[in-house]
Write a structure and sequence with these properties.
about 20% strand; 11 strands
Length: about 220
């Protein structure tokens, strides 16, 4: 009886550990600076937030496509080698949250340390030290000025501190589609305000960006 009790007690713990320790291994397709795909599974890199694909930054008085460069930097670092991702959970967009490694290199940390992403403190402080290192060294986006990616997604841009919010943004009204919005900023704000689950189906590919044809 004692042995059976121990089995019953240990089984949930072992199942939980197995779920936490699940890994996805394979060659990678880079979607953007913090999202990759392995075997068709979309994986969001844990604890970091990279410049969005269409995002621009400023350095030396010139505007440059920091979001595009972040994606290229990750793709070049990975090359054609296999990557191992340790998964945690899924986010509200259905993406797996994971720490991805190539050999002994934590790719999440590598992106932050090289200035292509920032620590996503809202969810984790794991990479704050790496961000401080990149900031002090002036690497990547830290060599000039940039809008934090989470603010950029809400419509903030360089030199604009208070982006206008469109008047018709109540999420409690009738169903909306992308044709109901004049700008991508309006659509993205509405999408985020509507909450999890994308009730208005504005994010067809479930990447967290609404009505991409408006961008």
């Amino acid at each position: 009886m004692i042995i059976l009790t121990r089995v019953v007690v240990l089984l949930p713990i072992l199942l939980w550990q197995a779920a936490v320790a699940e890994e996805i291994v394979g060659r990678v397709s880079v979607t953007d600076g913090d999202t990759v795909v392995i075997h068709g599974e979309r994986i969001r890199l844990h604890g970091i937030d990279a410049a969005e694909s269409a995002q621009t930054c400023e350095a030396g008085g010139k505007v440059w496509r920091c979001g595009q460069q972040a994606s290229l930097a990750l793709a070049e670092r990975i090359g054609h080698l296999r990557v191992r991702c340790e998964t945690f959970q899924r986010d509200r967009y259905g993406r797996v949250i994971a720490i991805c490694r190539q050999g002994q290199t934590d790719l999440n940390r590598w992106m932050v340390r090289n200035g292509w992403a920032v620590a996503y403190r809202r969810y984790s402080t794991d990479y704050v030290a790496a961000e401080n290192e990149a900031s002090q060294a002036g690497r990547g986006i830290w060599r000039g000025h940039f809008v934090p990616p989470w603010d950029w997604r809400r419509g903030d841009r360089l030199g604009v501190t208070s982006p206008s919010r469109p008047p018709a943004t109540s999420t409690s009204g009738p169903d909306r589609d992308c044709g109901d919005f004049r700008t991508w900023v309006e659509a993205q704000w509405f999408f985020e305000a509507a909450g999890p689950g994308d009730p208005h189906r504005l994010d067809g590919d479930r990447d967290g960006v609404a009505c991409e044809r408006l961008r």
